[in-house]
Amino acid sequence: MENTTSGLEPGLYIVAGPIGNLGDLSPRAADVLRRADVIAVEDTRVSARLLRHAGSDRPMIPYHDHSAEGVRARLIERMAGESVALLSDAGTPLISDPGYKLVRDARAAGRSVVTLPGPSAAIAALTLSGLPTDRFLFMGFLPVKQKARADALAEVAALRATLIFYESGPRLSESLAAMAQGLGDRDAAVSREISKAFEETRTGTLSELSARYADAPPKGEIVVIVGPPGEAPPASAEDADAALIEAMERLPVSKAAGEVAKKLGLDRRALYDRALELKG
Ligand code: SAM
Asked: How far, in Å, from the CA of 205 to the mean position of ligand 1?
């Protein structure tokens, strides 16, 4: 393959940046940012600061997955003979950030794709949480609307895995309460401002943490880690009734029975009959 003037092989370079502390930019990532022919970024003002830190004067192009098809096609075209770096405002590109369509299309066009691994808030928060790390699921941001949020939680409630959510300060307490309702009152950790001056991790049950933040929404960037379901005692008839009544407010009877069966590990048919009784 022909080298470009920068000395980097042509292709796409996925560059992980810091999630707060500029010192977390790896020497290899800084080197690619200094030598790439062009850097695709989310926000040129945000990335300008990191490029100054890295000693890079390379040109930037704004890129989002919803950018016009033409923008992506031109970048893919350029990768034939030039090196294109992809950088996010924070952390690893593609993780709740733009990039997957660029990677998909670059591969489809036969371009070289290289990743420069580095920080991601999801993994950093998981390591701080003290919760099981052997199986985890990244959930990104929960939907804002109540029903969509409850549906998203119901979908994963039965999974034996630690869950990772991105969240914002103003919504934190309400989201934690919704998680307690939809997942059960599990152990959790809230990490904010990781690698920055006011870094803090608080642990407790979801309802304790929700109460803790109810009157004082925290500032800054936040990750919530929720532990897997415990070996809970079998659900009581009262628990099943309460869960059915709540689910029937959102779902038709058969779906409500299915959701509760999954969540509480009970028989679907018996729950369906009980749901009809409660409804009648
Ligand atoms: N690509 C990034 C990554 O690899 O972590 C995530 C980008 S996403 C748009 C931004 C969200 O990540 C924030 O709203 C917050 O939930 C989380 N986040 C980013 N930096 C963080 C930090 N220093 N501390 C805690 N959470 C952070």
From this structure: 22
